Amino acid sequence: MSRSTMSRLTMLAIGIMLLLPASQASAQSDADLRRENQRLAARVAELEKELEAALQRIRDLEAQNAALRGSATGGRQPSDPVEPEKVSIDESKPDASPRALLAALKKNYEESFKSQSMGEAPGSRERSMYLRSVEQWHARMAREMRQTVEWHVRIVTQVASGDKGYTLELQAIDPRHGTHLGDPFLATLPKNRARPIEQGGTARVYVVRGVVTPRLRLNPDRTSVGPVDNPKFVGPFSELNLREVLLEINGATPAETPDDAGGAGG
Fold first, then answer.
1. By three-state DSSP, how is residue 44 classified?
2. Distance between CA 247 and CA 75 in Å, rounded?
3. Which of 75, 84, 85, 96 has minimal CB crowding within 10 Å?
4. Where along the chain do its domains lie?
5. Coil, helix or strand for 32?
6. CA 187 vs CA 166, 210, 232: distances in Å
7. Is pTM beyond 0.85 here?
8. What is the largest CA-CA distance in the chain?
């Protein structure tokens, strides 16, 4: 064998020896990758099952929630149109109900102050002038909106009593349907006019007649309705406080209940 042939064989042997570890490592790496892929595929399958179970649980909860909403609204879905309140009186007149009075005050306020700026800064000259104008408007409304009314009411509670009479919290209702016509309000009832209520008790509906005077109050810090509309917001800095006496009763008689008069569906 020639020297050159020996040299070539030696080089080939060395090359084979160098390649063997790499080939073995490659084979081992491929096996590891296959095992890792199999493990990941199994984990993905598990996660897909868990996801489907969670989605099914969400669908079940949504169905239960819809059923609860339906039972709470008598079967009416939130997207269904809301039936308008049943009212048999004309509330475009301020003397029709407490909320009609409030609506009239709001409308008058808007018309009275639409061209006057209330000023941007508290304490500014413009703001002070506006507040004085609101106080003057309050005095004018106490005169102009003072009126005789006849309302159907339920007695919410007796607030106070004395030698001269009672202070009652009343809820005005529609005479035919029983719909609440605004928030409860305070009224005074003289002792010499209280016999019908003393005899009839507080569970009945009464027709009360008397004089309404809006008790408007200046609130320099209130420029909007806010999260709680109590006292009732009329306009910037103006409130109607229903916790002050709104109605001075001079007569009360038992009335037919809404059911007697035709019921809510009549």
1. helix
2. 40
3. 84
4. 1-80, 98-254
5. helix
6. 8, 9, 17
7. no
8. 145
